[in-house]
Each structure stands twice: as structure tokens, then as C-alpha cells.
Specification:
One of its GO terms (molecular function) is 4 iron, 4 sulfur cluster binding. Residues 1-241 form the Radical SAM core domain. Probably acts as a heme chaperone, transferring heme to an unknown acceptor. Binds one molecule of heme per monomer, possibly covalently. Binds 1 [4Fe-4S] cluster. The cluster is coordinated with 3 cysteines and an exchangeable S-adenosyl-L-methionine. There is one protein chain. The chain is an alpha/beta fold. It is built from 16 helices and 15 strands. It folds into two domains: 3-260, TIM Barrel (Alpha-Beta Barrel); 321-393, Arc Repressor Mutant, subunit A. 42% of the residues lie in helices and 21% in strands. The strands form three sheets. A nine-stranded mixed beta sheet has the order 7-8-6-5-4-3-2-1-9, with helices on both faces. It has a three-stranded antiparallel beta sheet with strand order 10-11-12, with no helix packed on it. α3 (78-91) links the parallel β2 and β3 (94-104).
């Protein structure tokens, strides 16, 4: 069984107008929370979590992947990220050839910083590019320039690291040509992995308030669908294949960490607001599938750690029905598809080829080696495909 570690770094220089993640600026924090001691606190949480695992009979293998996300992990000194990574290696171990990724704001890294990460064992950098068009970047409250992204990618290449870029489509005022230019710029960088996400506007964000007030237009579903198709066409033509609804990679360059989430492996989430997931253990009768989530605010999270407590805000058992729902939802997001044989082992009602034929006829899925694989139309209408499958198994 694979095991993954996620490290959440909740700090940002400023809050982007669309962002609804668990992030904090210095102004937000006040009190005693500090970027200066964050690495030390994260390492202590890892020790506490390891102790909790052993107390509950959970013996995880060496981590196959480690992912630093945020927030802006690269707001911390490179040495702090390397210290945390070294502690993962000491506490759980990291398997040979493990994938070690950090997200990076292009404004916060230079060649020396990236070289230091490579020396510490990092193998991959995911740059928050979002767009290559200046007016779209301004709308998203991003301060970097396309030149900063290219400088980061080139530095990663020189350091022998893989690189990825994240894009966002559907920003207010972004034309189809703007989006096409952003995707083509990402391709021209020569990266081997691209993530492209539709803009989701939450009402509590700055952008959400602007849209509610009518000062920015609301994203349009048809526009976002057209932009998804543009991305899929351009990236596929450039040799990057879709392997998850929002992710494309050259063969062999997929994000192993993200694939682990979609395949429902065990992972420990470390840091304020981070989630963890543990599968049931046949050898531990009382161990049910479990998810937990850390206290969100860094100061309260830090207090729990200082008191030697696992800093969870809560946890819940994953019921068999919920587990079945997750199996379907996650399987239908990936190119590998939903394994019909596995589904029928756990579903109360068996699903046959005849049952899924209507979805094939509608052009939503194909069947490949007993796996249900969404077509591009099925990716665009992923919720519809999932609901059809829920109905087939009676959940």
C-alpha cells in the first residue's frame, strides 16, 4: 500500500482575490503564529502523528511521495523546506525514487533557491502560472510576470528537476484568444506537466464580492467548456495526454502524488487545515476507514502541538456507502477509469456492460478492458456521469 505526505504551508505575501484556501498573510495572523518557527512546528506535528499511528497499530511504509502545498511554500527559506523533508525521511522514510514536489510562486524563487531545493532532495516544482496575459493576471491579483515563470522553469531544468505549471481559465474579462495564448505559452516553456482548472468563485472572496456587486462579470459555463476544449486540443497536440480531468502530462511525467489521492491511498496531511486519510486495516478489526482534518488557524494549531496533542479539528469514519461513492467519483476522474470488476466487488448491485450502454450511446464514456473511462464530453459532464453510476449501484 502506498503512503503519501502532504505538508501545508498556509502563508502568503498577499491574498489573491479569487483564493478561498486556508491561507494567511502577516496581517491576518497577529498573535504568536510565525513563519520563523513554522518548520519546527511541522516537524513536531509529524512526530506526534507518527506516535498516534503506532498507538493505533498503523505501520505505514516509506512515503512514495511528499508534496508541499499552500499558500506559498516557497515563502519559507529553502533550508526550512529541506529541514521538513529531512524529518519526513527520518520519521517515515522515503522510498527510493520518491517524488518530492513543492508548489512555488514565481515571485518567491530564484536560481539559487531552486538549486538549494534540488540539493535537499526535491525532484519537482509546480509553478503557479495561472495566465500568461497581463490583464488576466491583474484580475486574479497575481503579481508575477510570464518572464518570472520562465526563469523558474529554466532554473528547475538546470537543477535537474521536473517542472509543472498551473493555469486557471474563466477569469472575468479573459477572452478565448487570451486563454489560447496562456496554454500555448505553457507549452512553449517545454514543461512536462500542465494543470488547468476552471475558476471557482466563492462568495466570501474579494472576487466573489465584486461579482455580487456587479463590478466583475460572473464566469460563464459555456465559456469555460470552450476553454477546456481549447486546452485539451493544444496540450494533446503537444504530446501531453490527459490523465485526470484537470491534468495533462507527457507519458511518465504524471504527478504521482495527485494520482495517489485519486486512487485513495493513505496519506498524512500536516499543517493547519490539512486533511489525512487512512484506509481500513483487515488486520486491525477496530480500524475503520478514517479521514481527519487539522485545526485551520495556525495559532490554534500551534497551541495543540505545543501541548503534545494531534492537532485535529475533527475526524470521521468513512462508511461503506461513502467509500463506494468515493471509489466511483475518483475513478471517473482519471484516464485509467473506474474498474468495473472492483466496483462489483463492493457495490450492493452488480453493474453490467448493458447497464452502462446508455452512457456509451450518449458519448459520455467508453469501456476499455472492463474500465469505465470518460470521454471528453464525459469529462465536461463529469457530475452527470457520476450521478448515473451512483444510480446504477443504488447510492
Amino acid at each position: 500500500m502506498a503512503y503519501e505526505i502532504y505538508i501545508h504551508v498556509p502563508f502568503c505575501m498577499r491574498r489573491c482575490g479569487y483564493c478561498d484556501f486556508n491561507t494567511y498573510t502577516a496581517r491576518d495572523l497577529g498573535g504568536g503564529a510565525s513563519r520563523g518557527n513554522y518548520a519546527t512546528m511541522v516537524i513536531e506535528e509529524m512526530r506526534i502523528v507518527k506516535r498516534w499511528q503506532l498507538e493505533h497499530g498503523i505501520h505505514e511504509p516509506a512515503a512514495s511521495t511528499v508534496f508541499f502545498g499552500g499558500g506559498t511554500p516557497t515563502i519559507l527559506p529553502a533550508n526550512d523546506l529541506n529541514r521538513i523533508l529531512a524529518a519526513v525521511r527520518d520519521i517515515w522514510g522515503i522510498e527510493d525514487g520518491g517524488e518530492i514536489t513543492t508548489e512555488a510562486n514565481p515571485d518567491t524563487v530564484d536560481a539559487d533557491y531552486i538549486a538549494a531545493l534540488a540539493d535537499g532532495g526535491f525532484t519537482r516544482v509546480s509553478f503557479g502560472m495561472q495566465s500568461a496575459v497581463p490583464h488576466v493576471l491583474r484580475t486574479l491579483d497575481r503579481t508575477h510576470t510570464p518572464a518570472n515563470v520562465e526563469a523558474g522553469v529554466r532554473a528547475a531544468e538546470r537543477a535537474g528537476m521536473r517542472s509543472s505549471v498551473d493555469l486557471i481559465y474563466g477569469a472575468p474579462g479573459e477572452s478565448l484568444d487570451d486563454w489560447r495564448a496562456s496554454v500555448q505559452t505553457a507549452i512553449d516553456l517545454g514543461v512536462n506537466h500542465v494543470s488547468a482548472y476552471a475558476l471557482t468563485v466563492e462568495p466570501t472572496t474579494k472576487m466573489g464580492r465584486q461579482i455580487a456587486a456587479g463590478t466583475l462579470p460572473k464566469p460563464d459555463d459555456d465559456d469555460e467548456a470552450s476553454k477546456y476544449e481549447i486546452a485539451d486540443d493544444l496540450l494533446t497536440a503537444a504530446g501531453l495526454e490527459w490523465y485526470e480531468v484537470s491534468n495533462w502530462a507527457k507519458p511518465g511525467y504524471e504527478s504521482r502524488h495527485n494520482l495517489g489521492y485519486w486512487k485513495n491511498v493513505d496519506w498524512a496531511g500536516i499543517g493547519p487545515g490539512a486533511h489525512s486519510h487512512y484506509n481500513a486495516r483487515p488486520n486491525i478489526p477496530d480500524m475503520k476507514a478514517l479521514r481527519s482534518w487539522d485545526i485551520a488557524h495556525p495559532r490554534l494549531w500551534g497551541t495543540a502541538i505545543s501541548e503534545g496533542r494531534v492537532p485535529w479539528a475533527g475526524s470521521e469514519e468513512i462508511t461503506p456507502d461513502e467509500n463506494l461513492e468515493e471509489l466511483i467519483m475518483l475513478g471517473l476522474r482519471i484516464r485509467e477509469g473506474l474498474d468495473l470488476t472492483m466496483l462489483n466487488r463492493v457495490a450492493p448491485t452488480s453493474v453490467t456492460y448493458k447497464d452502462v450502454q446508455p452512457m456509451i450511446d450518449e458519448g459520455l464514456i467508453t469501456m476499455e478492458h472492463d474500465r469505465i473511462v470518460p470521454t471528453r464530453r464525459g469529462r465536461l459532464l463529469n457530475d452527470t456521469v457520476i450521478e448515473h453510476c451512483f444510480a446504477l449501484v443504488g447510492v
